[in-house]
Each structure stands twice: as C-alpha cells, then as structure tokens.
Amino acid sequence: MIDRELNPCSDFFQYSCGKWLKANPIPSDQPGWGTFNSLAIWNIAAVRETLEQAAVESNSRTSAEQKIGDYYAACANESAIDQAGLTPLQPMLDRIAQLNDKKQLPELIAYIHQRIRPANLNFIDAQYQGVLFGIYAQPGFDDASVTLAALDQSGMNLPAREFYLKDDAKSKEIRDQYVKHVIRMLELTGELHDKAAADAQAVLAMETALANAAMDIVLRRDPKNQNNKMSLAQVQALTPSFNWTKYFSAMGAPASPQYLVIAPDFFRGMEKLIASQSLDNWRAYLRFSAVHYNAPLLSKAFVEENFDYYGRALNGAQTMQPRARRCSFSADIDLGELVGQAYVARYFPPENKARMLEMVQAIEAALGEDIRNADWMSPQTKKLANEKLAAQIDKIGFPDHWRDYSAVEIRRDDYLGNVQRASAFEIKSRLAKFGKPTDRQEWNMTPPTVNAYEDPPSNTINFPAGILQPPFFESAQIDAVNYGAIGAVIGHEIIHGYDDQGRKFDAHGNLRDWWTLEDAANYDRRDACITDEYTQDVPEAGVKQNGKLSAGEDTADNGGIHIALGGLTNKLKAQGKDLDSLTKDGLTELQTFFLSYAHVWCGQQRPEAARTAVMSQGHSLGRYRVNNVVANMPEFAHAFGCKSGQPMVHENACRVW
Ligand SMILES: [Zn+2]
Description:
It is a single chain. This protein is α+β, with helices and mostly antiparallel strands. It has helices spanning about 10-25, 35-55, 65-75, 80-85, 90-95, 105-115, 160-165, 170-190, 195-215, 225, 230-240, 245-250, 265-275, 280-295, 300-315, 325-335, 335-345, 350-375, 380-390, 415-430, 480-495, 515-535, 550-575, 590-600, 605-615, 620-630, 635-640; strands spanning about 30-35, 135-140, 145-155, 230, 260, 395, 455, 460-465, 535-540, 545, 605. The strands form four sheets. A four-stranded mixed beta sheet has the order 2-3-5-4. Strands 6-8-7 form a three-stranded mixed beta sheet, covered by helices on one side. Strands 1-11 form a two-stranded antiparallel ribbon. A hairpin with a 4-residue loop joins strand 7 and strand 8. Helix 2 crosses helix 3, helix 8 packs antiparallel against helix 15 and helix 16 (about 325-335) packs across helix 17 (about 335-345). The longest helix has 24 residues, at about 350-375. The radius of gyration is 25 Å and the shape is globular. The relative contact order is 0.14. Zinc ion binds near residues 492, 496, 553 and 556.
C-alpha cells in the first residue's frame, strides 16, 4: 500500500498511508475512518451475528441467550419504539416536573443517576459524562488497596468544559447551534416554543456555570490535584444545600471510609447554582439532561435530533449508522461481558493469547533494559521503577471470571427499560465497591473493544480481544509486523505507567513520589521536549494542539514504539537475525516494523471531529502519532536512509523512554 512516488523521509504518514486514505474514504455515517474503525465495525458485525441468532425465540435458549437476544430484539423493533414515543421516559420526566423544593434535589438526582448509563472511566483524566455530577468507585490515591467513593465534576452536555468557555467564532457558533438543539429537544417533549427557548437559555447558563466551576483539563491530568480525601461531613460542608446523606441513601450506597472529591471547586460551584437558580431552571436543566441521555433509546424524532447535533454538527457525520449496528453497540455497552463471550470463543483462540503474552513479556523486558541503561536515573529510582514493572499485571483478551448478569431483567418489548435496568445493575455493582479491597482483575473494557488501557491504581495493562486482530495482531504474520503494530500498542500501555501521570504511582498503585529530586527534574526536562514538540498547529482541525494536554499519550507513543523495537531486536537476535536482515518482501525487518506501525494509524477525520478530538481529549491525530514519533528516532533515519535536515529527522530529537 506504500506510495513509492513519495519520499518516506519527507512525510512518512503520507508515504505509508496516502494510498490507504485514497482507497478508504470516510463513510457517510462516520466522523472519521481509520484502521481502528474498520476493525471496530468488523468486530461489531461479529457481535451482531451472535445477537441475531440469540434473538430467535426458542425453548432451547440459555438464559444468557434470552438476555442478549431479547435485548437486541427490543432495540431492533423500531416500529414499536416509534409507536411508544416518549412514553417510556414519562415516569422520569414526571418526577422532574414534580420538583417543587430544592431540598428534593438529592433524591431526584439519585433517581436519575440510577437509571442512566454511567460513564466508563478508564483513565484518570477522562471527563466524566453524567447528570450534574459523577459518582464512581476508585482505588484510593494514598492507599490503592481499598476502593473509595469518588465524586467528580460533570453535568455538561457538550463534549468538554472548553466548549463553554472559549470565545472564538467557531465556539460561539457551536453554542448557538446547541441552544437551537436544546429548544428542538424540549419541543419534542411537548414544550411550546417560547417556553423551550427560555429553558434552553437556562440550560446553557447552568452548564456554563458548571464549566466555570470545573477543574481545567490540564490541571486534571496531575493526580495530586484530584487527591482530595474528605469525610462525609466535609463533603457536606462544600454543598450545604445538597443533603448527601439523603443522596447516598437514595442511591443505596454503602458508606465509604473516605470520599474522593476530585474537583472541590466544582461542588462549591454546584452549591452556588442550587442557591441562585430558580426551580423552573432546575426543572429545565434536568428535563433536557434526561431527554439528552435517553434520546438514542426513544422514537425516531429524538434519535434524529440527537444525531443532528452530536453526530452532524459536532462530528461531521452525514448519516446515521444502520440500526442493527447501533443496537449491537448498545448491547456491548449494557451486557458487555455476556455479549463478548461468544466473540472470544470464535475469534480469540488460546494460542493467540499465549503469543500475545510472550510479546508483552518481551516488551516489558525491553523496558527493563532501558531502565537499567538510563544514564539519567539514579540506582535508587531505577530499583523502584523495576519493582513497579515486576508488579504489573498483564491482562489479555478477556476476564478470567465472567460477570454474572442474572440479576438484570431483560424484556423483549422494553428497550429503554432494559437499558435502565442494566444501568441500575452497573451502578449498584460500582457502589458496592466502596470501602472494599480493590479488585485488580476487573476489566473496564468489553472483549470486542478495539482499544487498550493502562490503569495506574491497579498497576495493570489491559488488551481486549477486540484489538488482538488483524492488522494489529495476526498469528500468521512475521514478528516485525506484529511488533510494529500491536507491539507498539503494548509498549504504549506499558509506558503509560511511566509517563508524567503514571510515574507518580508506585508498584502498589499508590500516589507516592518515589523519584529522587534530581531524577524527577531529569524526567521533567525530557518530558518538556515532547510537550513543546506537540504544541503544534493542527491545520486539519483548525485549532492548535496543547502539548500539555496530550503529554501522557505522546510520551507513551514515543516510548512505546521504542521498547517494542527493543523487544523485536531481542527476538530477531535469538533467531540469528538482526534489524537489517531482509524479509521475503525484500524490505528490511526494520522497514517492515515502521511500515506496520504507520499502517495502524492510517486514518482521517472530518474537520468537525478533528477539532472536537484535539480540544477534548489527549490523543494526537494519526498523522502526528506517526510523523512526530518516527522523526524522534535515529532507527527510523537508519531504516530509510534519512539525512539531517529532512522533515522526518528532528534536530532536537525527544526521548523520555
Ligand atoms: Zn494511551
């Protein structure tokens, strides 16, 4: 697929991906398209097959098949859903309409929280998306062996805090469109236009107040800023107008030894909002939030209006994905470990797991060597870094123990109800962890997911079966291909444990400064090189990237490919080969490795989606994940004969790991 008319030393992304991009235009129902997306669509098609088979009613269905099959059937029955209109959500809207004293807010918020899908939190900098505030279980920062209740900022229905606060023309346009969207949604619930228009202004004002009170996205990246342990009385003192005892009791939450208040200022802001906003405005905010979160589960008018704003305006997609695919994704969210079992049985044989584990261990060993050879670290810090590496748990493919969903009732004629009951089940199991020993074996991603994560408090790296497929991993491929693709992903996740966030957690997952002052200063100096390099214009997004926001991901990319290459080097050595040896394609092993790396990141985004991504999350776009990384590597210059002065050879090459 490479474009031999281009020079790899000028633009390696274009050289490796240009032809792929031409051959793979963005489908009309997608905000962007790359190798990740096409694999995700392939995986979800496999899931869909399982769901469709299970949806056929018969007496021989197992209870698991009944659940996933009826869940799918209920979602796929669009005409019944259209006919029901707003009815399934009416009880929640009625509860909100009955709010006539702000003292009732704790019970009302608990009622809503128990019925809306809780956000999935995999990274400590992820923004929690939920109504008013977020509640979840998180290992303590000071003692990760015990899980605590965490209370976090949330309540903003635009993708990130910055969307409310930025003053440029594009941001204003997005907010104007948002107000129009809120008006149309409220009208769909039966409000008259004038009332809906006034309510929409109140919604924007209240969410803007929450955004102002919320912690900045870059400050959030420093775990120290999140480590605010409080007693229940201290939490109560932050928000005197919101009775937390009533809230937790309505949630059925056990007491937590302490409460992690991730962003205390946010809760001070919430207090002001309770004191200052009218009951009418609170009803408007909660009414819109309820409809917003449930819109994809309701009739066509709601689904389409929701897509028009979040799909079209914010992400540039033109058409909706087919309903069967949306229902399969939905089943994956709500019944993930039940739906994922068949996927694993068919597409992730034990020999793949064994080969993956071998690669993970080879790449961990390469980081061990790197640490040993680092001339910028003292023996004391090296010793603790190695202890952390040795204590890491590698989780591959799927959980050892599948989750038991028998408590979740799934009905064939009640899509919204199914989602509510699955959400209640999920919330309940999260709350049950308060005060309990941390379970390091648990997964935050479902098996068909095309992604991976590192989790600092549990000191684990996690690779769902969904990403252990071609072109990331293929048992028939040579090592250079697998190490360049999934190997770099493995390296990326391992390095997260040693990036600017991860390095602050020790072997036990505790937030503890185990670096000597001098080593930490050396780290920061090396890290600043990366931060400066990635503080760059991103013309395709129309905004500038903030290298401080993406620092962790960029460090993981640069270090990840480095240790993947270390793993490959050792592997080849054991076979009597080296990186310059030729493969049967006539390329060197090293060229093959870099081309495989680039191939994983082939992809493009619509301008709207690129802008939303650069502003709201920490990953660099694919083009930069390739070009910035290889230009920091002398091994790349060696592979393709690049000379200093060429774009893919950085004069000031950055290296942390
Ligand atoms: Zn990452």
